[in-house]
């Protein structure tokens, strides 16, 4: 028996282009890909130790409207990931910056509408973070 897992699933207008982007720009590893009639019905990548599934939007699963899904990524160098996405056609949602509760945080949106909340580990305890937030 395998361990239980939760995998984010991205429904995108162009899953094929997103797969190329994530493997080329973010060094994701494509683990699986299945198509029907030229549409990606299921694909799986591994990125930063997490498995993410993708598919082309269709009648049953339309592409999201609005700001798009948010993937929360904790990484030792969040600035590097932000620059990589921005250099490949992404846009800034929130600039990378030092946060009063410790760590660097920021958010970018890739060309497919997926938002990447990028940050380093926080350096404060939950109680310290709550105290900082209450002072704001």
TrEMBL record:
Mark the transmembrane ranges.
none
A Pfam family per the record? Glyoxalase
Q: What InterPro entries does the record tag this protein with?
A: Glyas_Bleomycin-R_OHBP_Dase, Glyas_Fos-R_dOase_dom, VOC_core
Per the database record, which ranges form the VOC domain? Answer: 2-121
User: Out of the domains of life, which is the source?
Assistant: Bacteria
Which PROSITE patterns does this UniProt record tie to the protein? VOC
PANTHER family reported for this sequence: BNAUNNG04460D PROTEIN-RELATED (PTHR34109), VOC DOMAIN-CONTAINING PROTEIN (PTHR34109:SF1)
What name does UniProt use for this protein?
Answer: PhnB protein
